[in-house]
Amino acid sequence: MTKIVDHDQRRLLIAEATLRIIRQMGMKGATVRNIAQESGLSLGALRHYFSTQDELLNFSMRLVKERATVRINELVSIDMPLFQKVLRILLELLPTDDNKLAEMEVWFAFTAHYRSSGTTYDAQHDGVQDLVERLLHSLKESGLLRPELDYTLETERLYAFIDGIALHALLDTKRVDYERIVNVVTYHMKSICTEESFLLER
User: Fold this and answer.
1) Stretch (H or E) spanning 97
2) pTM (two decimals)
3) Going from the N-terminus, what domains does the chain have, and what CATH number goes with each?
4) What letter would DSSP give residue 27?
5) Fewer CB near the terminus (10 Å): N or C of the chain?
6) Half-sphere exposure of 14 (CA within 13 A, CB side)
């Protein structure tokens, strides 16, 4: 009897093998041969799904982004005070558990690879800047952002702050642990929001 292959599941299996290889060996180790071995497939079978290495890497990169997007969309749909929701969404962008740390490691590896490969690189491809702008806009429109602040500068500062925390957590996981990430981000958000916004949590 002919075995039915779920091609979408097979692509996902290959992409997850790619992410494991990148985390273990870096982008230099993400060869078609290594990925095929990690996924338990022959080179020919792997090339049936991804004809080039770039095609495979792009698919794997999108997988990381899509997983983060799903988690954020789930938070958006939950009924909770706006300050708490914004805070939790921002924390989804940061390595606050082992799975997100793994995703962050491969995302930085992808970013460094594309910046150095000579291909066109869009600094906004991860969607973080756009998300930060929308979150602060929601706080401002709801009257929860401190009115004396420069909205444009605060948006840029929060974007840089989130990227900086992510990088520090990646480079020094012992010092910038999960608890510290939560505490620092919470402290920053309370410093730019009205007192009423986070008192509503109680």
Assistant:
1) none
2) 0.82
3) 79-199 (1.10.357)
4) G
5) N
6) 27
